[in-house]
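Exercise: predict the structure of this protein bound to tryptophan.
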Amino acid sequence: MTKNRIFSGIQPTGNLHLGNYLGAIRNWVQLQHDYECIFCIVDLHALTLPQDPLQLRHSTREVTAAYLAAGIDAEHCIIFNQSMVSAHAELAWLLGCLTPLGWLNRMTQFKEKAPKDRSNAGLGLYAYPVLMAADILAYKATHVPVGEDQKQHLELARDIAGAFNRRYEQDFFPLPEPQIFGPATRVMSLRDGMKKMSKSDTSDYSRINMTDDADAIALKIRRAKTDPEPLPDTLAALEERPEADNLVGIYAALAGESQEAALRRFAGQNFSTFKDALSELAVEVLGKVGGEMRRLMADPGHIDTVLRHGAERAAAISMPVLRAAQEITGLLRP
Ligand code: AMP
Ligand code: TRP
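Solution:
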């Protein structure tokens, strides 16, 4: 078995945004050279909230296009959609039987996404972190690069792996390590510095989409909430101003430099100068990716071929892991 294997995924639920790019996809592009990488489009996870079937299929192809457009090499890495490989759902059952409700009750994302009346929340939404653990463990992945919002789910995946290993008294699953890095591990909404940039935000101005054109990017950055003061010259002072902090973090991530280096460029300057520079940089980086996504989306047949090929390679790794887990668990396969 390879020592270092990465697994990560994104839900095909609507607009991919700058947070997905800076918090996840862009880091993956770098990591593909140093690890064996498996990148999934987690369509079963998307079903935890209601989806329009046509839109779900479209989004599945769009996330695939984003991976490819960002520079993930589908020959070198494995790119596939989750529902094509049954090991995920099957292993989730085995793991769910070892997961105490108390662990799931702690998950903050469930509390955010579930309706106020909990009796109306779907079982899938509640069990979602178990499926995520199965995604990772079915490949015995050692590293999982994600944005900060997934940290708690990853800790749970480690706990679940440990529970399986203890229950059956063997070191079967490695405990996966989260990889959360870069200055943009949590990109915030452009309208509210206390809220995460998210696919589901109803305000168009809250989020820069990966497919936005230059005009849309520039307009959203111009409209981004700020305060009247010029940019400060210390990180400590910046941290007290969430909106400013977020924009400088975005600049740093796009430029591939530290938050400190980015702040040094703009300390003492007013926001209009800074926003112009930020727009220019965002258009330069995202413009290319968005254009390539649109080009790829014009040929869905090609995308489907990539996914089919990826699913075969993914199944070749995870189905044997599932079979071994079934064997350990005592399920008879006559
Ligand atoms: P999701 O959009 O929930 O499917 O998330 C896909 C990936 O993008 C995960 O690794 C998330 O942690 C990451 N991500 C989502 N939103 C943000 C954000 N606002 N800032 C940074 N990373 C994010
Ligand atoms: N839960 C992740 C999110 O919403 C997506 C995801 C599903 C994932 N399975 C995964 C991420 C496995 C990393 C590894 O962002």
